[in-house]
Amino acid sequence: MRILLTNDDGYFAPGIRTLAKTLAKEHDVVLVAPEKEHSGQSHAITIHHSLVVKKVVIDGLDIDAYSVSGTPADCVRAGIDKIVPWRPDVIFSGCNLGYNAGMDIIYSGTVSAALEGVLLGIPSVAVSAEWVDGDAMFETAATIGCRIFEKVKDSFLSNPEPTVLNINVPYLPVDEVKGVRVADIGENAYDYYFEEEVDGERILSLKGRSKMEFKEGTDRYFLKQGYATLTPVIYGSADLEVMDRLTSWLDE
């Protein structure tokens, strides 16, 4: 199978290297990833300057790899349009350093790279590993992520509506992960707020207060219990019920 692999942590990140090694055992993989970290960039694209593409060598990998001076979404579109010599069967994004669960997926460059694939008609997979004190078990995340994909790939790839499979994996050895749960998108792990300083000008720093409890059945609820989670994500269309309501308001 032909796979385009990207991320938002940069082509040099250990998470993408680990996922590349795992995927390359069974598949034809080309890596196209940002030249620097783009965490929290969501679905930003570059429009005010050109992109620079460089072929790069990544230690321990024997695959074609490229850096792009742009965002994760740029990497996917440029990869498909100009860099990769074939149209991918599937796009993988990750392994990200830290969960992309709850409403944090809105801000995620990892998930948005996968969603860019969906916009181009290609089913995509986002894989994220729990962050603990600056570390993540990428081997666990890559192994579990690939196992999930292999189990569902026939139905997933034949689905007429391309979808993102958003996979999150806890900070545990592979044999200690309790299993996989299909889960709804839950709330954020943090209550975000700005901490303000005044030193001749107002300076705002984004902070977050950790939450401890999560709604039953959501991704973070299961992750806290030691399960990996799987959530299908698509770009929403207009809400038809709300459209009818708006039409009625205009006609009043």
Automatic annotation (TrEMBL):
The signal peptide annotation in the UniProt record is none
Is Metal-binding one of the keywords?
yes
What does the entry list under GO cellular component?
cytoplasm
| Alphabetical UniProt keywords | Cytoplasm, Hydrolase, Metal-binding, Nucleotide-binding
Domain Survival protein SurE-like phosphatase/nucleotidase: residue ranges: 3-190
Question: Which reaction(s) does its UniProt entry say it catalyses?
Answer: a ribonucleoside 5'-phosphate + H2O = a ribonucleoside + phosphate
Provide the E.C. number(s) assigned to this enzyme.
Answer: 3.1.3.5
Q: What does the UniProt cofactor note say?
A: Binds 1 divalent metal cation per subunit.
Its cofactor is: a divalent metal cation
PANTHER family per UniProt: 5'-NUCLEOTIDASE SURE (PTHR30457), 5'_3'-NUCLEOTIDASE SURE (PTHR30457:SF12)
Q: What does this protein do?
A: Nucleotidase that shows phosphatase activity on nucleoside 5'-monophosphates.
User: What is the protein named?
Assistant: 5'-nucleotidase SurE
Q: Name its species.
A: Aedoeadaptatus coxii
Q: What is the lineage of its organism?
A: Bacteria, Bacillati, Bacillota, Tissierellia, Tissierellales
